[in-house]
Design goal:
Blueprint: H1 2-8, H2 10-57, E1 79-89, H3 92-105, E2 109-117, E3 123-132, H4 136-144, E4 148-158, H5 160-186, H6 190-222, E5 223-232, H7 246-289
Parallel strand pairs: 1-5
Antiparallel strand pairs: 1-4, 2-3, 3-5
Length: 328
């Protein structure tokens, strides 16, 4: 009996010891979790405070002492401006000189120029003007007021995206060329050098094409293009009286007479060579050919079956008065 008691008594004690150990472990784990959570919270708070300080130190940021916001810089716009004008003026050369002067004063220059004349002998000039973009509106207004405006068209094309894209590609291409050159400096094998030289040549050609496109865009955006066409004003004819007067009749008759003389002179001039040849032939016939021809004798009077034809008798002489004592 004592032995059984000694065996059963340690069980409650062991159970109490295990319960105490479990409670102790639970408390340690909860303290560890609380410490970790507090450290994470401290790190988050420090990050938030650092971000807030960076915003206050950055230009344009909002802080407790300053509420002003700096304006955001927009990218510069690149616009290609073109215009076409047709102006009717009284004196085309004078208007062209004025257009040249206004263009050169604005800092531009004269491009292509073409001058023609129409069927009515009116002068027509077409000239291309390149002016700075900031002086485009002023020069265009001055050209429109040079005379009577017949036609006007203007166009504006925004190429900002193209300019930005080309600049970015140029930067990348230059970096690529620099990397190829660095690899060539470190290359030791001939095959590698040849391969790198071919790649470098290709990339340099692409870079030059991009630079040429950038130059073209810069020229077209910095200088506006104005195509000016100047035409001469037609001369108005004065209205004339339809009823002819004495002076008109006299002038008409004189013009008809002069016209007749002119045509006679033309006809004589046309006939004169033929008349000269005919006169020369007649002279040769009379002076050279005809004297050499044999002369023919006169033919005898023809006889008939009855007999010879009677010859004509001489006319009787007129009777004259006889003197006294004169006989027949």
């Amino acid at each position: 009996m004592r032995t059984r008691r000694s065996v059963r008594r340690p069980v409650p004690a062991l159970a109490a010891l295990l319960l105490a150990a479990a409670l102790a472990l639970t408390g340690c784990s909860g303290a560890g979790d609380d410490a970790a959570g507090s450290k994470a919270a401290d790190r988050g708070l420090a990050q938030d405070q650092g971000a807030a300080g960076a915003k206050e130190a950055a230009p344009g940021g909002t802080g407790s002492g300053s509420r002003s916001t700096a304006p955001v810089k927009l990218p510069a716009q690149h616009i290609i401006r073109t215009a076409s004008l047709t102006v009717q003026v009284e004196d085309v050369p004078k208007a062209l000189d004025e257009a040249r002067t206004s263009t050169e004063n604005a800092g531009g220059y004269i491009g292509d120029e073409t001058t023609t004349r129409d069927a009515e002998d009116r002068e027509r000039t077409r000239v291309v003007l390149r002016v700075p973009a900031e002086k485009y509106d002023a020069v265009l207004s001055g050209l429109e007021g040079a005379g009577k405006l017949l036609d006007r068209s203007a166009k504006a094309e925004d190429v900002t995206d193209q300019v930005v894209d080309v600049e970015s590609r140029i930067t990348s291409q230059r970096a690529s060329v620099a990397r190829i050159r660095a690899l060539m400096d470190r290359a030791t094998k001939l095959g590698d050098v040849v391969t790198l030289e071919g790649e470098l040549s290709t990339r340099q050609a692409d870079l030059e094409a991009l630079l040429a496109r950038q130059k073209s865009l810069r020229d077209r955006t910095s200088l506006a293009t104005i195509t000016l066409t100047l035409t001469e004003t037609p001369v108005e004819k004065e209205a004339k009286d339809d009823d002819p007067g004495f002076v008109d009749a006299l002038a008409g008759g004189w013009n008809a007479f002069v016209t007749m003389l002119r045509w006679l002179a033309v006809v004589c001039g046309a006939v004169l060579p033929f008349a000269a040849v005919a006169a020369l032939l007649a002279l040769l016939w009379l002076r050279v050919v005809r004297p050499r021809l044999p002369r023919r004798s006169r033919p005898a009077p023809a006889a008939t079956a009855v007999g010879p034809l009677p010859t004509a008798r001489p006319a009787p002489e007129a009777t004259q008065p006889r003197a006294p004592g004169e006989r027949d």
